[in-house]
């Protein structure tokens, strides 16, 4: 695109909504945004750290799967209003198979009678082969990745905004990615709409603030915030998802649909600004190192908060790669005790299970004994200061090398029914394979993102 | 008084590291909280959970602090045996911290 044409098409303000904060999130708030948000873009962030590994396993079982399990439900619900109102959609619901997700979305669009839609599938984040061929060490443990070779499930680089911008420039109505940095799903349409340079570090830093604030959807409109009597939030069952009104310099006003539940205040915005941040001077992203320390947060009207002042410095030479691997099994069992002496009986139950696991030779590398209601969340020092609770739930969990051993942990809790303290009830037990993740830093030139367009 | 009366908080997770924000309702209390909500006190208060170092970052522009807690998630979210593997509930534990009246 020439500079002159670019100048003509540049927007003065962009309205961007967040339609999901995680894979299983509510769907109606996204429909509400598509219908009433007067949006230019609607973004769905649906890919937690290890979700892509589970998706990769699904793809290996069926090459046409491996995308977000709720893709179909979301697209069916949102597409009619989005198309009617000219809202373009961006999402990482492509997970381990963006191309299959794009094909599925195209078929849904056709079924809904929507035609002439362009759906882009961004690929290039899958770097399992690259990681396997190199000599890398995990950032967290320092272990050599090669030592995990037989257990590796997936390795995906956090892509930046560029392939999404390219797809939007090519006219995509919907862009589906696999692993991309969450804020990049939001910065990409802003870069596209405003024509920002990819070395305008301060603007990209502020754009990262916008993306970071919006990426968890309801967490900035009053979700994950309410604390009755201290921080009250109205209508959480009808929580509205956020809208960012972004100006050409990146400054944003966070708001919501007027009749939706929740609230947008300086407090909700500040909590989300620092969510999952370590050093606020150096928030590492694929396209920029963002600095949040100069950010200003000002409520300009009810449910309208202005956030500006984010800045940044040049991007690093590496991209973060999340590597997932099979990490043994976890078995767990729970049982409840209530009424007088509940805690004493629960403690007796824990002692019995501890001894049973020894007697029966269940091989564990790590065991944990909790009293839910007392010490399971924050430990015994804080948990045992208060008066004895009326009821308490015993929980035993352990790490094993085999599913068979993991199952036996829950079984030893279950046998408390007829062999343990009086009045135990409500046993549950689970055993599962563990997919764990660590990260590797990969030279960015080894990652080559691209997109493919599917037409509906 | 409890920290909860002057500030609010949210916890986030990454790998085996937690961050817990402490945000003043009233900017006038920021210096008071800086003096009394120190990394040492946070580490002592959450000693059963936090096995690593506690680092405090200051954000005076929004009257907030950000505490980064090392080795706080039982080996990491994806492999932890804990009930709250993400450590999401830890912000509420910090709000129980006793501080002097400003």
Uncertain runs of chain A: 1-8
- Biggest sheet overview of chain B: 5 strands, antiparallel
**pLDDT averaged over residues of chain A:** 96
Report helical residue fraction of chain B. Answer: 10-25%
Count of domain modules of chain A: 2
> Rough shape of chain A?
globular
Tell me the fraction of residues in β-strands of chain B, as a range.
Answer: 25-35%
Number of strands of chain A: 18
Mean pLDDT of chain B: 95
Overall 3D form of chain B = elongated
Q: Biggest interface pair, residues each?
A: A-B, 54 and 39 residues
Global Rg of chain A: 25 Å
DSSP helix count of chain B? Answer: 3
Gyration radius over CA of chain B: 13 Å
What class do helices, strands and sheet pairing of chain A give? alpha+beta
Amino- and carboxy-terminal Cα gap of chain B: 9 Å
Strand content of chain A: 25-35%
Keywords:
heterodimer, A: 456 residues, alpha+beta, Alpha-Beta Plaits, 2 domains, ten-stranded mixed β-sheet, 18 strands, globular, B: 102 residues, five-stranded antiparallel β-sheet, 3 helices
Report on the architecture of this protein:
The complex is a heterodimer of chains A (456) and B (102). Chain A is an alpha+beta fold and 456 residues long. Chain A folds into two domains: 280 residues, no CATH class; 114 residues, 2-Layer Sandwich (Alpha-Beta Plaits). Chain A is built from 14 helices and 18 strands. In chain A, the strands form three sheets. In chain A, strands 11-12-8-7-1-2-3-6-4-18 form a ten-stranded mixed sheet, sandwiched between helices. The longest helix of chain A is centred in the C-terminal third of the chain and has 18 residues. The two termini of chain A are 25 Å apart. The N terminus of chain A is likely disordered. Chain B is an alpha+beta fold. Chain B has a single domain, classed as Alpha-Beta Plaits (2-Layer Sandwich). Chain B is built from three helices and five strands; from the N terminus they run E-E-E-H-H-E-E-H. In chain B, strands 1, 2, 3, 4 and 5 form a five-stranded antiparallel sheet that branches. The longest helix of chain B has 7 residues. Chain B is elongated. Chain B starts with 6 loop residues before the first strand and ends in an 8-residue tail after the last helix. The model of chain B has no long low-confidence stretch (mean pLDDT 95). Chains A and B meet through helix 10, strand 14, strand 15, helix 12 and strand 16 of A and strand 2, strand 3 and strand 5 of B.
